[in-house]
Amino acid sequence: MGNCGTREESAVVVSHAQVQLLSEKKQSQSQNRTLSDLGDFEDSRKNALLYTHVIAFTLYELETITKSFRSDYILGEGGFGTVYKGYIDENVRVGLKSLPVAVKVLNKEGLQGHREWLTEVNFLGQLRHPNLVKLIGYCCEDDHRLLVYEFMFRGSLENHLFRKATVPLTWATRMMIALGAAKGLAFLHNAERPVIYRDFKTSNILLDSDYTAKLSDFGLAKAGPQGDETHVSTRVMGTYGYAAPEYVMTGHLTARSDVYSFGVVLLELLTGRKSVDKTRPSKEQNLVDWARPKLNDKRKLLQIIDPRLENQYSVRAAQKACSLAYYCLSQNPKARPLMSDVVETLEPLQCSGGSAGEVSSSLNPKLTGGGAGPFAMGGVPDYRVRHRFSNNVGPGAICRSPNPNCSPGGPAACRVR
C-alpha cells in the first residue's frame, strides 16, 4: 500500500493556535492533576508547531465510517485506546477521496489520554516519512479524542512474529522490516528537533501490503535534548523488556535508549522469540539475558536463530545481524551505535533485485572497526572489534534464492551454502 498518498485538496490546516485552544479546553475540564502531569502537559503544548494536511473530522463522521464503532470493526486494542477500521470517501465529506483508515479512540480516563492524543498530533502532525504511519486527521469534541491514520493492511509485526497461525516471515522480509524500522527511528533522531520515540516494540511496528515497516503510536514520544543537554529527565514509561536499563534506573532518556529497544526488536526478528516470555524455562524468559551472551560467539549464535526459517538465510548475514544486535544491546549507552549507523549496517543485508539476493562477501567497514566506524566508538577498542568480527565471518556464505528478484515481501528465501 505504501504511504497513502498526498491529499492536499481535501486537507484542513491545523494551526498552532487551534492546538493550544484544544489544550486549554481540556486543561480547564480536568480537576485531579499532579504537578508532574501539568509539567508534561505544558511541555507538549509548547512543542506544538504548524501542521498541514491534517483533516479535522467531526465525531459524527467518524461514527459513520466505523458503523458507530461496531465491535466487528475493531483492529486492535492497546493501553491508550481501541483502534477501528473505517473508510472515508465523498459520502463522508465532499472532496475526500476513497481511502481505508484506522481510527483510534483514546481512553477518556484522566489527563493521560488527552496528553498522549496531543503528543501524537504534535509529532505526527509535523513529521512525514515513508517509515512513519501517516496521520490523516483527528477529532476533538467535548471529552472525545480520536486519531485517524492510514490503514496498514498487514497489521503489526508482533502478530506476524508470534501468532502461531501465521506463515513465518522469511529472512529477507525480516531484514527489510528491520531496515525500515531503523530508518524511521533514524529520521526521528536526526530531525531538526530530535525526537525520542520511547516505545519501540513489535506491536508498534505496522506493515503495509508490501511489508514496508512504519512506526505507529507516538503517545510516549519526547522531544530530545538540545544544546549542551545530554539527556531528557522524565518519568519512566514504556514496555518492560524493551526499555533501556539506564533509562529504567535513572529516568534519563536519550536517543541511545531507542537504540537499545531496536536491539531487542532485532533480536526478536532473529530468534522468533518474545522479549519476555513467562512460558519458557526461567533462564530463557528474558530474551536479552538469554541471547546476548551468544550473539558474539560464532559457535552459539546460529543456535538461537528462529528454527522456523529452516536455514533459509545467509550465515554471513546472520552473523552481521547478530553482531549489530549485540552492540545495540550494550549496557553502556555510549557503546551503542547511532541509528544512522544501524541503517548503514542493515542496507547490505537486503536481498535486492538483479543480484539473485547475493550478500556481499566484504564486511561493512562500519562493522570491522576500521576508521571511525560506530562500533569502534564508545570505548570499544578497535582491535577487539576487528578480532571479534573477523572470527565471526565464515567463508563462502552466499545468499541464494530460487527467485531471481529475491522479493523481500514474497516467499523468496536465502539458502545457506
From TrEMBL:
Q: Name one GO molecular function term.
A: ATP binding
Q: Which biological process, per GO, is one annotated for this protein? A: defense response
Q: Where is the Protein kinase domain?
A: 69-350
- InterPro entries per UniProt: Kinase-like_dom_sf, Plant_Ser_Thr_Prot_Kinase, Prot_kinase_dom, Protein_kinase_ATP_BS, Ser-Thr/Tyr_kinase_cat_dom, Ser/Thr_kinase_AS
| SUPFAM superfamilies (UniProt xref) | Protein kinase-like (PK-like) (SSF56112)
- Give an example GO cellular component term for this record: plasma membrane
Subcellular localization is given as: Cell membrane
Q: Where does the UniProt entry say this protein principally localizes?
A: membrane
Tell me which EC number(s) this protein carries.
2.7.11.1
Per UniProt, ATP binds at K104
Give the keywords, sorted.
Answer: ATP-binding, Cell membrane, Hypersensitive response elicitation, Kinase, Membrane, Nucleotide-binding, Phosphoprotein, Plant defense, Serine/threonine-protein kinase, Transferase
Q: Which PANTHER family match?
A: OS01G0588500 PROTEIN-RELATED
User: What is its biological role?
Assistant: Required for pathogen-associated molecular pattern (PAMP, e.g. chitin and flg22)-triggered immunity (PTI) involving reactive oxygen species (ROS) accumulation and triggering plant defense, including defense-related gene expression (e.g. PR1 and LOX). Ensures specific recognition of the EPD1 effector of Verticillium dahliae, resulting in a hypersensitive response known as effector-triggered immunity (ETI), characterized by the activation of programmed cell death to limit infection by the pathogen.
Q: Which family does it belong to?
A: Belongs to the protein kinase superfamily.
Please report the name of this protein according to its UniProt entry. non-specific serine/threonine protein kinase
> What is the organism field in this record?
Durio zibethinus (Durian)
